[in-house]
Design brief:
seven-stranded mixed beta sheet; about 300 residues; Conserved hypothetical protein from pyrococcus furiosus pfu- 392566-001, ParB domain
């Protein structure tokens, strides 16, 4: 787009003063709030669309064309109600932080300028802002949310508790979404395309074997199973697996329980033991913290010395 004769960005003082008023107490004093790592100017600016490049950190990969056209028509009639957010890279050069749909719809509507908040943010802050903004405000599908959560954890160095606080979700909800990324690709794609629901996927993820997961998934699609039916099938599979494991164990139950109790007392945590007819199996010693792990290692070292 030729921007040589484009207008310079225009200040929008009216709405800016309104925003400033929201940040003041009724007596005119400043609110004492926790400082934000992202500083925004107190007035908005109208920016030429040709000066704005899209957000490289945009978590949404696909946009509904019909919904985009409907938004464009609304913008033609009502204008932009909610400004986009950008960061300034240089003179007449901006990068979108949030508002991808509004930006694209404005182009379809034939606008030349768009109201925007200008913020200062580095790449990591921008990624975090973009992901959280989209998770909270956009109708992302389950896989897009899961990928956004994972990126916030790995690329923004957030713990699940911190992530939950940022997006207003508890840790269990966050973990349920992240677990979806362990599903086979064919199931992830079907969840993304709304072939199956989040409820279906949450039931399938409780099956350990990927091949069994895919077999069950095919039945769900072919026979149009409800979430409740899938949950029932998963419970039946778990019962069958547990029964098969019990049949393979040759050690007397009382002996196993006695050994488990002894080891649990020794390590200060609940120990589980499994064994088959060839006397092959495993002993699991769980720990929930570094302190518990240190205690287990101390017992092992004492026994070895």
């Amino acid at each position: 787009m030729d921007t040589s004769n484009a207008k310079a960005p225009k200040r929008m003082t009216g709405l800016g003063r309104g925003l400033g008023a929201l940040l003041q107490d009724s007596d005119g004093g400043s609110r004492h709030t926790k400082p934000s790592p992202f500083e925004a100017i107190s007035t908005m600016t109208e920016i030429n669309l040709g000066y704005i490049e899209t957000n490289p950190f945009q978590p949404r990969t696909r946009f509904d064309e019909e919904a985009l056209n409907e938004l464009a028509e609304s913008i033609r009639v009502q204008g932009i109600i909610q400004p986009i957010t950008v960061r300034q890279l240089g003179k007449d050069q901006y990068q979108l932080i949030s508002g991808e749909r509004r930006l694209q719809a404005s182009k379809i509507a034939g606008l030349t300028h768009i109201p925007a908040y200008v913020r200062t943010a580095n790449d990591q802050q921008m990624l975090e802002m973009a992901l959280i903004e989209n998770i909270q405000r956009e109708n992302l599908n389950s896989m897009e949310i899961a990928l956004s959560y994972q990126r916030l954890i790995t690329e923004c160095s957030l713990k699940q508790e911190e992530l939950g606080e940022r997006v207003g979700k508890n840790r269990t909800t966050v973990n349920n979404y992240i677990r979806l990324l362990k599903l086979p690709p064919v199931i992830q794609a079907s969840l993304r395309d709304n072939v199956i629901s989040m409820g279906h996927a949450r039931a399938i993820i409780n099956i350990d074997n990927p091949e069994t997961q895919i077999k069950l998934f095919k039945k769900i699609v072919e026979e149009d199973w409800s979430v409740r039916k899938v949950e029932e099938a998963v419970r039946n599979l778990a019962d069958e697996t547990e029964g098969a494991t019990a049949r393979r164990v040759t050690l007397p139950k009382q002996e196993i329980r006695s050994l488990q109790f002894k080891l649990s007392s020794m390590f200060g945590t609940k120990v589980s033991i499994k064994a088959d007819e060839k006397h092959k199996g495993e002993i699991k010693i769980p720990f929930a913290s570094q302190e518990e792990l240190d205690k287990i290692l101390l017992v092992l070292n004492s026994s070895a010395s």
